[in-house]
Amino acid sequence: MTAVALATLTVVGFTVSQLSGTDSSALATVDPTVEPTTPRATSAAPPLGGEGEPALGTIPKIKDATPVPMPLDSVLTPMSDIKLIDQARDVAAAACMNALGFKTWTAGTIRTWDAGEYREHDFFDYIDPAVAAESGYPRQAEVKGVSSTFAGTKHEPTAEERKAYEGGASQTADGKPIPAGGCAGQADEKLYGQQKKLPADPRALAVASRSRALGDSRVRAALVSWQSCMQKAGVTAYQHPITAQNDPKWKSRTQGTPASDEEKRIAALDAKCQDEVNLVGVYKAVRAAYEQRLMEENKSKFAESKAIVDGWTKNAAAIIKSG
Predict the structure, then answer these.
(1) Which of 2, 101, 211, 299 supports an S-S bond with 39, CB 3.0-4.6 Å?
(2) Angle at alpha carbon of residue 233, lines to 224 and 67, rounded to 5°
(3) In angstroms, rounded to a whole number, what is the distance separating the alpha carbons of residues 169 and 20?
(4) pLDDT of 160-199, one tens digit each?
C-alpha cells in the first residue's frame, strides 16, 4: 500500500489498516495491567461521543466461532464495494498514465491494495481449545486468483513516471500537461468527485468502538484474569492474547504449514484461558454497547453516507467497465 493510497483512503474514511489484521500488530505490546494510550486505530476515526462506559446487556458465553451480530453490521459498507473502489482507482490512474504516453504503465504497476486486506477482522474471536491443541492458531487461507489486470508488472516506474503519477511535475518531458495531483489525483476526482468525506463512516466507527472496547475496564479485567490463568499454567511470556497469537516464532506460518508443538501448546492454553474467563463474550458485549451508542448518535447520518458511497461504487464500476 503506497503512501498516496493510504492518504486517499484516510480522506474518504476507508483506512485499510483499520479494516484488516494490520492493526492487531500495532497492539501486540499492549499490557492489560497498564492504563492504555489511545490505540493507533482510533487516530483516523471520529470521536466516540457519549460519557463514560456504557451499560451492558446480557454477556454471552461464546462457545463456537459463529459471528456475533453487532449493531453497526446493517450499515457497514461491504468489503466488496471497498475493493471495487480501490481497484477502480488503479484503473483510472493507469488510463491517465497511458494518455500521457506512459504505455507500459498498467493498473498493477503501483497497486494500492492487497487482496488479503478485505477480510473482516476483530481483536478477539473464539478459538476452540481442542482444535488449537491439534493445529495451533487458526490461519486464514491465502487469497489467490488476483486478476492479471492487478497482478503487478516487472516494470519499475521511472522518476518521470512517478512525477506524473504523484503530481510532482506540471508536464511530461514531451510537453503534455499533467493534471493537478497527478494521475492518482485525477483518479480520485473521477471516483469521489466533490464528496470525499462521509457524514458518518460506519466502518471507521466500528474500528473506533472495538479499540475503545479494548481499553474498557470490564475487558481489561477479563484480560487480567486471562493473564493470571496463563501464569498459573507456567506461561509468563505473554501479557495479552494478541502477543501470544503474534509471537514471531509462528506469526508468519501459513495455513498449509503445520504448527510447531510449542505453538500448539500455547494456542491450546490461550484458548482454554480465554474460554475460562469468557474473554470473547465480555469483549463482544462491551463492543456492542459502544456500537449501539454510536448507532443512536449517528443514525440520522447513515442514509446520506450510504448515498455517497453508492455514488462512489457506481463511478468505480463505470471506470472498470471502460478501462
Answers:
(1) 211
(2) 55
(3) 34
(4) 999 999 999 999 999 999 999 999 999 999 999 988 899 9
pLDDT tens-place string over residues 36-47? 322 222 233 455
What gap in Å lies between CA 47 and CA 35, rounded to an integer? 19
Residue 66 corresponds to which cell in the numbers above?
A: 459463529
Give the integer Cα–Cα distance in Å for 22 and 178: 34
Distance CA 265, CA 247 (A): 13
- Can you tell me which residue has the cell 503519477? 165
Gap between the Cα atoms of 205 and 74, Å rounded: 13
Q: What is the mean pLDDT of residues 293-320?
A: 96
pLDDT of residue 152: 52
How is residue 45 written as a grid cell?
Answer: 476515526
Can you state the angle between helices 182-192 and 279-322, rounded to 10 degrees? 100
Cα-to-chain-centroid distance, residue 207: 8
Total residues belonging to the chain: 323
Query: 99 CB contacts (<8 Å, ≥6 apart)?
Result: none
3-state helix, strand and coil shares in percent for the chain, rounded to the nearest 5: 55, 0, 45
Express each pLDDT in 97-135 by its tens digit. Answer: 999 999 999 998 988 887 778 888 899 999 999 999 999
C-beta of residue 58 within 8 angstroms of C-beta of residue 281: no
Query: Residue 30: which region, alpha, beta or left (left: phi > 0; alpha: psi -120 to 50)?
Result: beta
Neighbours of 321 (CB within 10 A): 9
> Burial level of 67, CB count in 10 A (0-12/13-18/19+)?
exposed
Closest CA to 282 of 132, 50, 123, 49: 123
Place of cell 443514525: 299
Report the C-alpha gap between 105 and 169 in whole angstroms.
17
Q: How far apart are the first and last CA of the chain?
A: 22
